[in-house]
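Closing statement on the glutamic acid sub-project.
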Amino acid sequence: MTVRVRFAPSPTGHLHVGGARTAIFNWLFARHHRGKFIIRIEDTDVARSTRGSEQMVLDDLRWLGLQWDEGPDVGGPDAPYRQSERVERYRKVIDELIARNVAYRCYCTEEELEQKRKAAEAAGRPPHYDLKCWIHRRNDDAPHAIRFHVPDDGDVTIDDMIRGQVSWKKESLGDFILMRTDGLPTYNFSVVVDDHDMEITDVIRAEEHLTNTHRQVLIYRALQWDVPRFAHVSLILAQDRTKLSKRHGATSVSAYAEEGFLSDAMVNYLTLLGWSSPDGREVFSRDYAIEHFSLDRVNPAPAVFDPQKFEWLNAQYIHSMSAAELRPLVARFFDAPWLEEGIEVVKTSVHRLTQFREQLRFVIEYAPPDIDRTFAEAVVNELRTNGAPHDPEQFKAMTERLKSATGLKGKALFMPLRLAITGLDHGPELIRAIPLLQHASEVDPTVLSPLERVKRCIR
Ligand code: GLU
């Protein structure tokens, strides 16, 4: 049977790293098994869901490169893939559950239910529904919700692909709501209907849904539908071992994109939050991850998000890419006609795409430093006579000539030379900075050539 998995975001804002990791695991699993990766929008929480958020989530998934096979903007045999467009279908299934005598109309009001909960609590009983509307079944059209009746054989055991056997006792559940008074389905109900209709074989989702699985399996059984396999992925914690949240820094995929992280690095890093490769490697391509991904290598313990490690990994990607590959990515943040040459010169000191601007600031900005006038004259003379050196050999010849002209050597020669040309006491090697500045000044009238720069030091 073809593997079919889904990622089912609730469109209430940008995609967060936790959701992104769940999406990545689903995508890797689908690609590994040559199956289908489906996106379903769980938008029945009308108060919080918006089309704008949906587009944001889809854009984030596209940016991550997680192309889906069925879902919004793509379609597929089971479209629509938005729960809000499937309400008719949920109603039909409700009718079927009522006909099977496993669901019923519940006319109890919120206030009534609240009172019952309080009474149960005071008496030390579990806060389960007292079955009033189950015992006195009604069928009139007064406002009502639909409840599921937990059967006597309501114990459930699943074989979670990450956590192993997980069991629940019938007693841990009371009769629960399938459809609210407003006619909208609850999450536990719609998710079962959707996963069944979309022929989902493997449900890979966040650990927070593990306890929901008890209710969901009971609904599958009541409808005599096949139960999918489940895999519940652990939480992502911050380094202080609390749940990752805004106060720990960026948590959304788009915020990391804005901070100059690469999509490949993000997919790689989030894959490492829980999964480990069979040969222990940490920097790997998508193809490698697809080839080797399996749920039995996903750790059931919480994963810890380590921003320094993520940045380190991002740097590995930047350093291994060519300037031509990096150029379009960097151009999102900063562009210049000499950008590619500039990237080549500074990329090894960059961890994030946004840092190229800072690293290349010396090309755009130049303030003449305070250096010895005779020294500056000697350099001007050298550059006028021989031009700016283009390669290591010419650079070496230039420094030899400057050595004899000034009587300086080593640091005493190189420091003022670096200052005069770049305006900085740090930065890329001169041997690379000089040809960059020369080239940039030829293609960009706002850039001063090495000669122009040193001339300005003579005051
Ligand atoms: N819409 C749910 C969420 O965003 C997903 C539920 C599921 O995967 O079953 O948490």
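The domain at 363-455 is CATH 1.10.10 (Arc Repressor Mutant, subunit A). With this model delivered, the sub-project is considered complete and its resources will be redirected to Aim 3.
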